[in-house]
Amino acid sequence: MNIDIHAGKRALCKLNGQWEVCEINEGIARLDKDGLFIPVHIFKGNQYKDINVNDLFLDAFEIDYSLTLYPEYYMKKEKYIEFIESEDFDRTLENAYVSDGDYGYYSVAKYTRNWLEKQPFDYIVRED
């Protein structure tokens, strides 16, 4: 198993039961009886904490700027909800990710208004 973890890597960390955008900090990881803790900078509130590696989501990917020029592939969450409720939507062909506008994170798990509205991100990135 190969884990891509390095200083400067964008990630999500679970903080108080919510996913928050963070960046892995340069520093010393700590191992104790509760696990491996990695230093991170949490953007919301400009916090620095050590987060258990099990509470990190490390599969973030940078959104290519050129993709943002295509509104059918990069859209606000509200517009995406309109799309999935339209006749043009085919869930069998759909593959999309939640995004903060700069990075994509995890796949859309349910193509429903309710699921999407609960997500803490404002954008959706679709794949061809």
User: Strand share of the residues?
Assistant: 35-45%
Overall SS class: mainly beta
Task: Quickly count the domains.
Answer: 2
Tally the helices: 2
SSE succession: EEEEEEEEHEEHE
Overview of the structural elements:
The chain has 128 residues and is mostly beta strands. The strands form two sheets. Strands 1, 2, 3, 4, 5 and 6 form a six-stranded antiparallel β-sheet that branches. Helices cover 11% and strands 39% of the residues. The relative contact order is 0.17. The two termini are 28 Å apart.
Which properties best describe this structure?
128 residues, 2 helices, six-stranded antiparallel β-sheet, 11 strands, five-stranded antiparallel β-sheet, mainly beta, 2 domains, 39% strand
Write the layout of secondary structure elements.
Layout: E1 10-15, E2 18-24, E3 30-32, E4 35-42, E5 47-52, E6 56-57, E7 61-62, E8 74-76, H1 77-84, E9 96-99, E10 103-107, H2 113-118, E11 123-126
Antiparallel strand pairs: 1-2, 1-6, 2-4, 3-4, 4-5, 7-10, 8-11, 9-10, 9-11
What does this entry show, briefly?
The chain has 128 residues and is mostly beta strands. 11% of the residues lie in helices and 39% in strands.
